[in-house]
């Protein structure tokens, strides 16, 4: 602990990176920067890599600092800087503490993982003494809920700023697991060199201090928000923030020389000082291949042998069937004639699955449409009667369509809570055709299900580990024990990143932070990721499965349409149609491999571009064999009840469907179990046997199951969110901090 504390900000370690986060619109960040710059015997240099930032060198204390300011409304900048920051300095308002934008920012930072932090309150001296005491008590009460046992530092004089710096330098550093095992850096300077083929793509030279782990040139780097890239070279230029006094003496001697000689020698010295640490080896360099290119001929069979042909003929004779055909029909034509029980075709379209699986919700939507049609004439009459010259009402009415859609979602969520997984049996399509992809299970917990059965084509594009936990332990053991060759922690280096789009440099010039993370082996490859998340208490809108969400997983962010499933210890997990507010759920998506531990934040984009935090959690596993089962429940009602027999209707509407689903076990809402005995008539009535006498108000249920897979909707490009709208009133929210 002492060695780590002494190396941070010292001559041999990287500068102490402090990120200032104003949590209120009235928080005086400029006054804080001015006070921090006014330290005795300190050298202040403006930061080229970030507007509003500066570097503080204290030779007397043998410390060097880098201060960077991030606005609480710029969510991506705050989260990206918090990924690499050594300390966060929250700037509070002396009266209110933080506003709604600050509350949203704190919620995201707590979920992502909070490094070491300090609380500073500049200002407040202009208030009367009595009001100053009341404001201090109110602020202490608000801080106690969010930051228990945290000390608040007033920041109005140079002495108070010195105490704050001493606290930042000596406090215990909090570790974030996903960054401690990977090399990372925050760019101090960047230069873009376009390639010969195109000016839109080129080599990006990024300079900064290496943090976390040793950086290997043969590994891949991930530029946060832009993607994965290869490196071609790593240089070691002179440290611009050196505390070595000999550098100062050399500069003084060079100033005494003539101007012409000084300029020439200076450029020569700079060229000589830039050392090439290492160049990438094509044989050892990690590949950028993220997907497997499936071979369509891989599953082709060879020509069968004579023995296989004879076996096939014997099996055909054994399985021959008698079919009534018209006179004059050949054997070839007769082979194409099917029985009534064999009708139906396989539909592989995912969109059809969504239509097939939501019969109950279609009925609800039809009711909603019919009610809307009844209400339309009244709305038209109201519009003809009212005459308004105010544009505010017209703008308000534009939100009515969104409100109707939200009302429909609330109805669907409520129906799913009251009648989980229940659907109506269609009247126009036979149930054996409509539910042909489903199967019955004797027991959802103990019945077997092959994880390699009927896999989709997307599974041919992903990578899978034979033993993921063993591979993860082996990699982490190598990081802890073996010393990899490369740029050590604390070195000031320049990375040559290849084939980078020019948009990365444009983003850096606009003032956004440029953060790089080195990838562990296999972390650029696609697989199936499972996240364990909890619904955030500040969000109450219904979130349906397969809706597009924005993921912040560790150092990555991407868009995808996930599946929700229950978190159990069994080998099969039931699909959830909505994100439940009262239980932990597992979110499944196609995404690049990431080795846990890693935090995850789920956002939903509004129509106006703002991002709402809907769930937080952590990475559970990388496992394509995790079986997510969708359940359908068909319901029927007892028509005639005997001792242990009952006649059930309204579950099916023809005799063939009753015979088709006869092997599936029945259950009731009051705990009875039974099976179908025989059909009665031709309209779907059936005689059923149960383990006890039914009640007249009981409902007979039949469960059907099907395995579902996520959709391949992975998109690494996430649009910048609209800044959060600030408001004074903030409700306290209880949250769990990620470590």
Automatic annotation (TrEMBL):
Biological process annotations from GO: endonucleolytic cleavage of tricistronic rRNA transcript (SSU-rRNA, 5.8S rRNA, LSU-rRNA); maturation of SSU-rRNA from tricistronic rRNA transcript (SSU-rRNA, 5.8S rRNA, LSU-rRNA)
Compartments where found: Nucleus, Nucleolus
GO cellular component: nucleolus; preribosome, small subunit precursor
Region of interest: Disordered: 246-314, 334-393
Record flagged with keyword Nucleus: yes
InterPro entries documented for this protein: AARP2CN (IPR012948), Bms1/Tsr1 (IPR039761), BMS1_TSR1_C (IPR007034), G_Bms1/Tsr1_dom (IPR030387)
Keyword Nucleus: yes
Keyword line: Nucleus, Ribosome biogenesis
GO molecular function, one term: U3 snoRNA binding
Organism domain of life: Eukaryota
Domain Bms1-type G positions: 14-174
Compositionally skewed regions (Acidic residues) per UniProt: 339-361, 370-383
PROSITE patterns, per the entry: G_BMS1
UniProt main location, coarse: nucleus
Pfam family, one: AARP2CN
Residue spans of biased composition, Basic and acidic residues class: 273-284
Functional description taken from the UniProt entry: Required during maturation of the 40S ribosomal subunit in the nucleolus.
Protein family according to the UniProt entry: Belongs to the TRAFAC class translation factor GTPase superfamily. Bms1-like GTPase family. TSR1 subfamily.
Protein name: Pre-rRNA-processing protein TSR1 homolog
Organism: Sula dactylatra
Taxonomic classification: Eukaryota, Metazoa, Chordata, Craniata, Vertebrata
Gene behind the chain: Tsr1
